[in-house]
Amino acid sequence: MRITITDWIHKVLEGQIKEGDHCIDATMGKGGDTLFLCQRTGQSGKVTAFDVQKQALEMTKEKLEKHGVKAKLIQDGHEHMANYFASGTIQCIMFNLGYLPGGDHQLVTRPKTSIEAFEAGLRLLKVGGIMSICIYSGGDSGFEERDQVLDWLEELDDRTYFVIKEDFPTKKNHPPMPVFLVKLK
Ligand SMILES: C[S@@+](CC[C@H](N)C(=O)[O-])C[C@H]1O[C@@H](n2cnc3c(N)ncnc32)[C@H](O)[C@@H]1O
Question: N or C: which terminus of the chain carries fewer CB neighbours within 10 A?
């Protein structure tokens, strides 16, 4: 048996998403999380995915077509996501920070725009909705984004958000760090 950190994030989110929900993939990339959200929300649900790279939209479109599911794919920065939806309408928002594997390492998520996007995302979440953030560090990514995101998390109001940060002590070389935020009110 093999379990990846992405599988684990999907397992955590599975229980929080039902058919008919509206969800956002804030970092579309190759569309793995977009596909997961489409499969969870079903035909009556709605999935919107953002990426700054045309290449990501093309790869994701192809992946979704192969699996016979649909999502709205938007080429825009996730920091603008509040322009597209009403507050309190989204059940789940996924962020997978870093750069597109095999793509341009310059087109990486940046702490300032990522935090702007988290703040926009928290406003869009329904009460009881969940945001996941998978933080990458080390290597090309360095530690700046991880450290700024962790500092930002500590400032959140404990009565408004239930915040979970996970780590994997047996994994070497700075494994990704999943964070989950549940909106309580
Ligand atoms: C680690 S990849 C995402 C992987 C993806 N979840 C998957 O399943 O393949 C991070 C993605 O974030 C995108 N990105 C970088 N800055 C962004 C921004 N401001 N808004 C939206 N996407 C951004 C990159 O282009 C890249 O495709």
Answer: N
Q: Which of 36, 109, 145 to mutate to test the pocket of ligand 1 (most atoms within 8 A of CB)?
A: 109
Residue 106 is predicted with a pLDDT of: 84
**Per-residue pLDDT at 145:** 94
**Pocket mutation for ligand 1, best pick of 27, 76, 83, 106 (most atoms within 8 Å of C-beta):** 27
Strand spans (E) along 68-183 = 72-75, 90-96, 125-135, 161-165, 177-183
Sign of torsion over alpha carbons 144, 150, 153, 155: negative
Residue 90, pLDDT above cutoff 90:
yes
The amino acid at residue 60 is T
| Radius of gyration in angstroms for the set of CA atoms belonging to the chain, rounded to a whole number | 15
Q: Please report the domains of the chain, with CATH numbers, ordered by start residue.
A: 5-24+39-46+79-183 (3.40.50.150)
Which residue minimizes the CA distance to atom 22 of ligand 1? 51
Helices (H) and strands (E) in the chain, counts: 5, 7
pLDDT digits (tens, 9 = 90+) for 31-54: 999 999 999 999 999 999 999 999
